[in-house]
Specification:
Length: 207
């Protein structure tokens, strides 16, 4: 999809992606400059819900509460604990928290793309305080802004760790930024903040 610009149409379970992955919606209400979702998939639209426990939606919580309830009703019938790959802290409500508490959750992923989202993640940390760090993951965008540095990025990653999330450094690369062109210090940072075993030992130094 990334190379072809495919806008993403209806989801057919088991086609192109592994079984138990489900996509119940397309698009996103946000138009973030670092993300291609809205430019390719457009505004949000809800799809028929099929069975699976890995919810691959871009921004599940942005959809109607009726749709989200149906997704959780489906998840409650699955044998495996749920995995949410796209949870936006800005849209999280107490009703969503109640739904999460009603099912088994293996993992949920949020995102920290810019400093303006700090408040929403702080609020989310409080609302989901009963979930441990292994269940609360957070992608942290690094190397996107011209003024970003490894030191600044590390501070953001450590901030997310201290909030109780497991941070994952998402190294920004456009078509002109091949792996061999990425400075070693950026590669070292993303290596630490992409492997939980290494990350735990590293972050203990800043506790």
């Amino acid at each position: 999809m990334e190379k072809t610009g495919d806008p993403g149409e209806d989801f057919v379970s088991g086609t192109f992606i592994k079984n138990n992955v489900v996509i119940t919606s397309r698009g996103c209400p946000k138009d973030c400059p670092w993300c291609f979702v809205q430019s390719r998939e457009g505004q949000i639209r809800e799809l028929p819900i099929t069975n699976g426990y890995i919810v691959q939606d871009n921004n599940l919580l942005a959809y109607s509460i009726q749709h989200v309830r149906k997704v959780f009703d489906m998840l409650s019938t699955q044998r495996h604990a749920a995995v949410f790959m796209g949870m936006d802290a800005e849209f999280l409500t107490q009703e969503h928290v109640g739904m999460l508490n009603s099912i088994r959750v293996e993992r949920m992923f949020f995102a920290y793309d810019h400093c303006g989202s700090t408040y929403h993640l702080e609020k989310t940390a409080e609302m989901l305080s009963n979930y441990n760090r292994d269940k609360k993951r957070c992608y942290v965008l690094v190397n996107y802004y011209d003024e970003d540095t490894v030191i600044k990025a590390e501070k953001r990653l450590l901030k997310i760790w201290k909030l109780g999330f497991m941070p994952y450094a998402m190294l920004y690369r456009n078509d002109d930024m091949k792996k061999n062109h990425i400075a070693k210090e950026w590669q070292d940072l993303t290596r630490i903040f992409s492997r939980p075993a290494i990350m735990r030992g590293y972050c203990k130094k800043f506790a």
